[in-house]
Specification:
By secondary structure, the protein is an all-alpha fold. It contains 22 helices and no strands. It has two domains: 10-61 and 85-229 and 295-443, no CATH class; 68-82 and 230-294, no CATH class.
Amino acid sequence: MEEAATGHALFGLDPLWVSTFLLIATYAAIMSEKLNRAIVALLGAGLMITLGLLNQEQAVAGIDFNTLALLTGMMLIVAIARRSGVFQFVAIISAKAARANPAGILVMMGIVTATLSALLDNVTTVLLIAPVTLVICRELEVKAYPFLFAEIFASNIGGTATLIGDPPNIIIGSAAGLTFMDFVYALAPVVVVILAFNCLAIHLIWGRAMTATAAARAKVMALDHRDAITDRPLMIKSVVVIALVIGGFVAAHHYGLEAGTIALFGAAILLLLDNLGRSVEDQHHRLIESFNEVEWITIFFFVGLFIVVAGVEHAGLLNMMADWLVSVTQGDLQVMGLSILWVSAVLSAIIDNIPFVATMIPVIQNMAPTFGGDQALLPLWWSLSLGACLGGNGTLIGASANLTVAGIGERAGVPFRFLEFARVAFPLMLASIAISHVYLWWRYL
């Protein structure tokens, strides 16, 4: 365990107690939603430093720049690709592939959302897919709520499968040195099973009762997917760059590159291709447009959160938590892994899964000596990932994608109610975790 930054907090207070209080206060303020979470995290980070719990060098060292680079790079790539209309193109093609049958579209949009969430990220995916879904539902004259519900679930399930699909995975992968293919190999098989289960469950709950008139279905079949493409050259450039970036993630381990480097380099290439041949003034406007699409609030939330977690880590709290968990589970890896899975799922349904995962990572890292080294921790990382990502489906506030879709729905006159959502979502989430439990026990524990 490292010593506290200065050996004492301001006014001679115990660093352990002060840092613990700041962590709890930060979590409470984030959960209250009275202040934007980025403001809360940055205030917590500032207090960690000014109260003497960290010096500035330790605070900077606590920030995971690979995570920030990966998030920023992918946000830029998607922001540019979105202007081409490629994602709307995919959504309309999917609806027509289901012959405009509402039950078929319900399943198809779930599969498309899950796939895009694995390759991009879940929040970006729902931002692209949900508005198109509302248009299709309006043409079919069917309720949009089941479709938006299915897309929330599919986005969080699909995002669980890869390093870049969900922010908790990005943080876990960067901290544990796990590659894109590590996640795919470990989690994609169970994600496919969980997605199939949820598609079936949602079909039984809503899909089988859905009908649309022949005239309404004809309207959807008449939609021209080619009209969705607003910039064909940009679409081609975007698809090529996205494919190269994903290929880079796959090959990164062999070249000793971090995912953040690949994402930012891919973003730089797409920015270049998008601005070649334009005037300097036009380039300036295009760059402003692209960088304005980056979710800077999320980026700075991560910056503050990393520093807050670094403060309690330096004070020794996380080492104590790790020792306590090992003691409670009596050093049994199987019990530990399954406990992390279920606790992560339930807590991630109640609180934001990002700060929870950021706090749990150093706790798990401190268990390495108990279980025989870093390699022995792999089952615990997969337990944390499955619990945190899938647990976000349990309530409306469990994940950012949930609130994003709810906001889009509310603006379109589709109400989302906390209890109504949880009544269906929480049991489905628990079923997903039960499937994960069996999978982890069978394959890793």
